[in-house]
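Hello,

I think I submitted the xanthosine-5'-monophosphate job twice by accident. Can you confirm which output corresponds to this input? Input:
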Amino acid sequence: MAHQTVYVIDFGGQYTQLIVRRIREFGVYSEMIPWTAAGDRIRALKPDAVVLSGGPRSVLGADAPTIDFGLLEDIPVLGICYGHQLMAYRLGGEVESASLKEYGLRVLENAEGFVGDLASTTVWMSHGDQVVSVPAGFAITSSTTTCPVASMQNPLTRKYGIQFHPEVSHTPSGKELLRRFLFDVADLKPDWTSESFIEEQVAAIQEQVGPTGKVLCAVSGGVDSSVMAALLIRAIGERAVCVFVDHGLLRKGEGAQVAETFQNHFGGNFKVFEESDRFFGALAGVTEPERKRKIVGEQFVRVFEDHASELAGCDFLAQGTLYPDVIESGSPTAAKIKTHHNVGGLPDWMQLKLIEPLRWLFKDEVREVGRKLGLPDDMVDREPFPGPGLAVRVLGEVTRERVRMTQDADWIFRSELRARNQHVGIWQSYAALLDVRSVGVMGDERTYEQPIVLRAVESEDAMTARAVNIPFATLEHIATRIVNEVDGVNRVFYDLTSKPPATIELE
Ligand code: XMP
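Support: Only one job matched these inputs. Its output is below.
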């Protein structure tokens, strides 16, 4: 790639991904490389700078993770925590096992050089071993009451080490230190922008697909597949065969919006398969959650089978793999294919080559690219939505009527949050329909109808989640509107459970 690159060599640190993100926030492209692959990668493509991450091991251990420092001779290097110790140890300094593990906030003392003006600022420490003497050519640039070498530097060879973590928010000057390393020490230019990404990817897609190749791109209405489709259309126009299967299980209005956006604003080869009858038919009478998921997945395959002639000639399948998936699979060159929830697999006979144009991006970068490609904000900012859609938010049997009730309640809930700006910071918010009936009274009539559950959670990654503290007055207003405006609903609950023990979805 044409832009400058910083490799963050991962020694197993829990914050390594965060370092990559922080560097990219400065407009500099960064990749995380496992230490086992670092030598080969550096030999293959020399980076403009290297960061050595933290890690749980001791550099004194027999099989300590390491890197050939000979490869780094003329490259600016910033060692963080384990990386700092490794650099000191491998270049001839001394590291000792401290009797107590140091964990928490510390104040920098005697600061000079690279960390010069940061004396008496707090930094985040978390380590067992520590550097006790620095290699030849290095100077100690700060210490703490418990750590004699909190930082060190050798400006001649552009090697810098810090025992603390600049990437976490507990180190207030951390961003400034990363900035200094990138721009003052390594003399980089911020050349990693959404525009440059789009430009590079357009060229890369054109090359991979060739002058006549066609790419099948399934659009779900979610952020990743929408951005992917917009990017493919930019690169290969009509040869991006974009397919949106409307199963009737999206939020109110979203199916129409996806079709409208792509048909009217992006043009190209966009096909809508209106298949809601098929999905509702297959789901009739089914109440068991996993069975519903399976049915939705299977029906996607049937849809692709039935439309095979329209899709004939596709050579590639576009997949919305993101950078965290690539990192998790361990190797940047061999990403595992994640189960595509929204497509549920393709028929076996469709032997398509994979193309993953978003595999270098974090989610927030995908959103930025989407905006630059001209997708509307409410599409780009969309909350995560389960592939089986409202099939898992309508508890019990999924009928058109029950989906309609859920969509209407969901619309009221989410638009009220938006109108009050209370949607900010929410990971997911939705309405679900319970599979019970309850008694109510409306006018002079006794009602016996179904309750809606509202759920809104905060989360970082969907692995854990907490209910959002929505003001009571807002909830009360929303509940009143839902009962008044949504036929068939006579009661509203708010779900207070965190995950674990509950899950984000009700089914
Ligand atoms: P749970 O309910 O397991 O959800 O806490 C975690 C995250 O995954 C989403 N989710 C799904 N996404 N297909 C999907 O594509 C599914 O079957 C599915 N089930 C849950 C959920 O919305 C949340 O973001």
